[in-house]
Specification:
By secondary structure, the protein is an alpha/beta fold. It has two domains: 162 residues, HAD superfamily/HAD-like (Rossmann fold, 3-Layer(aba) Sandwich); 111 residues, Hypothetical Protein, Haloacid Dehalogenase-like Hydrolase, Chain: A, domain 2, CATH 3.30.1240.10. The chain has twelve helices and 14 strands. The strands form three sheets. Strands 8-7-6-9-11-10 form a six-stranded mixed sheet, with helices on both faces. Helix 10 links the parallel strand 13 and strand 14. Helix 2 runs parallel beside helix 11 and helix 4 packs antiparallel against helix 6. The longest helix is centred in the middle third of the chain and has 14 residues. The relative contact order is 0.18.
């Protein structure tokens, strides 16, 4: 099979456990781009955060961000955006304010959060290691619903960090019952991610493929998280990182080394060295 697109998750895949990119990873992605392979990032991170990683990798491609709700290139207007409406955002915030939690409105240009005193170590670690760049405006307000009443926002995503597991469970059940316009998924026992209904990393990547004229069978996907499983299963070649959980590895066609063992670089060089450049394949009429 000839592959024309390489898609990668960021955290636990491209980045090492220290949050840095290894030199060999940059070299491998440069190598595969020279062969004419379209390289993109598929992530739950905000667009500015993903753009920062793309810049370090010298990628100029469209990026699938906000868990698939926002697709854009570093220097272009978005080709796809799906948002939670202003009214629904306000109503969700009013509902969530009855729990002890931090509510984070994640827009592509800024984030807006209520203030919360963090007493849970896991929660504190999750909230303050979001990976967003310093230049991405992050504002904290005393009363989030009051702020939204004066300044409505229609975000691609809302993140919620709870003090207690039971609150997270109850909030998820309440959101499912009350708001058909969104879906709420647990990232961990203390955190929910709220997205417009129908949004997912999988649907975002398929939209990008359709936009580029690339079928899913012509895609290679490399990931490590549970939400990467559908993409790993549907791609022409699904790859799990060595640091991924068993369920992720079980879904994959190929398991590479871990993020600290340069798993992306190893996989890319092992596989794509066998594939001729895309332009050569077109010239020989092997592909269109």
């Amino acid at each position: 099979m000839i592959y024309r697109l390489l898609a990668l998750n960021i955290d636990g895949t491209l980045l090492q456990s220290n949050g840095k990119l290894h030199k060999s990873t940059k070299e491998a992605l440069d190598y595969v781009q020279q062969k004419g392979i379209y390289v993109t990032l598929v992530t739950s991170r905000s667009f500015p955060s993903a753009k920062k990683v793309a810049r370090a990798l010298k990628l100029k491609s469209l990026l699938v961000t906000h868990q698939g709700a926002y697709i854009s290139g570093p220097d272009a207007k978005p080709v796809y955006v799906k948002r939670i409406s202003e009214d629904v955002t306000y109503d969700i915030v009013r509902f969530l304010e009855s729990f002890s939690c931090q509510i984070r409105i994640v827009h592509e240009q800024f984030s807006l959060s209520n203030k919360l005193r963090i007493n849970n170590n896991l929660l504190a670690k999750t909230v303050f290691t979001s990976g967003d760049p310093v230049l991405y405006s992050q504002q904290f307000v005393e009363d989030l619903s009051e702020t939204l009443a004066d300044q409505p926002v229609s975000p691609p995503k809302i993140e919620v960090y709870f003090e207690h597991k039971k609150d997270a469970e109850d909030a998820k059940a309440g959101l499912k019952a009350m708001f058909l316009e969104v879906s709420a998924d647990a990232l961990n026992p203390y955190c929910l991610e709220i997205l417009p209904q129908g949004v997912s990393k999988m649907n975002g990547l398929l939209y990008l493929g359709e936009h580029l004229g690339i079928s899913r069978k012509e895609m290679v996907y490399i990931g490590s998280d549970l939400d990467d499983i559908p993409l790993i299963e549907e791609a022409g070649l699904g790859v799990a990182m060595g640091n991924a959980r068993f369920d992720v590895k079980k879904a994959a066609n190929w398991v590479t080394r871990s993020e600290n063992e340069q798993g992306v670089a190893y996989m890319v060089k092992e596989h794509f060295r066998k594939q001729q450049p895309i332009e050569f394949l077109k010239k020989m009429n092997i592909i269109k």
